[in-house]
Amino acid sequence: MQLARLRSSFFIVLTLSFLQGCAGSPSAIGADTTADTTVDIGPVVQMMEEVDILLVSDHTLPDHLNLSSGGANGEERLFIDPTLQSLNSKLIKRGLSTYILNVEDMVAGKDIRNKGTFDAAYNQYDQILKAAVKHGVTIASIHYDADKILAENYGENKAYASAEEDGKKYGYIGGVQLILDERATSDATLALADQIIHRDNILQQLNSVGLRIRPGYGDKVRFQSNLTLNIAGHSPSGAFLLEIAPQDQAVRLYGSPEKIVAAIETPMEALADALYGFRQGL
Q1: Would you state the pLDDT for residue 35?
Q2: What pTM does this model have?
Q3: Which of 7, 12, 62, 258 could form a disulfide with 75 if both were Cys (CB 3.0 to 4.6 A apart)?
Q4: Which segment of the chain is annotated as a signal peptide (predicted)?
């Protein structure tokens, strides 16, 4: 979605931003469009020549400018970051070269407060994604999904069908799922998605610790537009976006982000094995 820097895997984040609020995030865009100084990304771009797995967080931090970019409840990064760190350590133990890409690292001071800085940061972010694609890096975007939105709160969003659970109608029921953008599906991207879902059963492994799979997507890819995947999906070494859990449901089950990460230790080990095996087969 180009008019707002929507990096969520679902347009639902826009709904959440208005309905639930984003603590610490501005609710309106100011007139200031002056970009803060961006960092020199040349070294990171060059590093992509040697990286096996690029791990991307996509969203802005909870206390930064949120232009439909903060994710579930405007605080998705609080859950994404420890999950990425856990997966990263597992990949390194398997001998893979990794890099974690965060949008705030694209600007000096790592602070995104106005639209000019926001746009400049994501432009830098995209340049690194393009370099990763060029050099055959496997790109993994890790997210947490929204939980449930009642039908009356969902609005007239024709992109998603209404859902029902336990006799109650919802505009949206989120969950574990693997997402691709049909505009960018290299052979490797499709093969990796198929392996994750059907051979390595990562979605089912996440479900085994109590995390709901998005209804209808337990054994297939969810195709939808996504700015990161529209670049990353062209990688000759594959790319995917994995929704780990409905964020609020995970909190109800386990509490803190750290406890959630501990609960998904086994599925994350399996995902690391899957990525290692896939890279070995390239």
Answers
A1: 74
A2: 0.87
A3: 62
A4: 1-23
